Amino acid sequence: MKVIDGKDIYYKQLNEQIRSEIRAGVKDFKLVNIIGQRYIGGGLEDKDVTIHVEGVPGEDMAAFMDGPTIVVENNAQDGVGNTMNSGKIIVHGMAGDVVGYGMRGGKVFIKEDVGYRVAIHMKGFLDKVPIMVIGGKAGNFFGEYMAGGVVVLLGATTENDDPIVGDYCATGMHGGVIYIRGSVEDRMLGKEVKKFPLDKKDEKVLTPILKEFSSDMDLSLDIFDFSKYIKLLPISSRPYGRMYVY
């Protein structure tokens, strides 16, 4: 494993060093003393590369990433997985706003809470189905304009008294599915979606995802009682179609 000390290293130099080592054949990295360096893993395409991050990475970690695995042993800032194509992100803490913006494939697992506008514009691409699991709670505009993929919000790893999800959840959603473990008041949802109970097909989809999440996070959680979940689905494929002039 290649160890890179990020102390006092500017983000451009850090990212260039990672790319240089990958070109030299290095596949497994440990980044230590990371304090807010941006774009870690951004644009990397090597499917067999794994990057372990000790510290708190900066904004847009794994933006446009297409293959590698990134494991963060702490919190992460805004823009995790921005428009990523494939690969996997595991954050053993909280993450900020706009996680998974425009995500087209791959997996994002966050152990604890996330901020605002998470999973917005999330979509599939060709045969890709992006997957996101949040162990804690989410802020406003969760799943806004979502067009594809699978998002799971568990509310299982946090003890605060906040609602599991903020206002305007799934506003403008027109594709994909959101699973929420818990109750959500109708007033907190966008008018473009409705709540449904889970069926056997949903259980078949969720079971391997939840097992993988629990294993990656080394958690033993009671999250397999599917009667406690609701499913959000869009009721229109073009929720704002009449608002535009052609």
Strand-helix topology:
Layout: E1 2-5, H1 11-23, E2 28-35, E3 50-56, E4 66-72, E5 86-91, E6 107-110, E7 131-134, E8 147-153, E9 175-181, E10 193-196, H2 200-217, E11 229-234
Parallel strand pairs: 1-2, 2-3, 3-4, 4-5, 5-6, 6-7, 7-8, 8-9
Antiparallel strand pairs: 9-11, 10-11
Written description of the protein model:
Helix 1 links the parallel strand 1 and strand 2. It contains 2 helices and 11 strands; from the N terminus they run E-H-E-E-E-E-E-E-E-E-E-H-E. It has an 11-stranded mixed sheet with strand order 1-2-3-4-5-6-7-8-9-11-10, sandwiched between helices. Helix content is 13%, strand content 26%. It has a domain of 151 residues: Pectate Lyase C-like, CATH 2.160.20.60. The N and C termini lie far apart (56 Å). The longest helix has 18 residues. The chain has 246 residues and is α/β, with parallel strands linked by helices.
Q: What structural category arises from helix and sheet content?
A: alpha/beta
**CATH topology-level name of the domain at 93-243:** Pectate Lyase C-like
Instruction: State the CATH class of the domain at 93-243.
Output: Mainly Beta
* Assembly classification: single chain
* Spatial ordering of strands, largest sheet: 1-2-3-4-5-6-7-8-9-11-10
**Strand residues, percent:** 25-35%
Output the number of helix runs.
2
Radius of gyration: 18 Å
What is the β-strand count? Answer: 11
CATH superfamily of the domain at 93-243: Glutamate synthase, alpha subunit, C-terminal domain
Mean pLDDT: 95
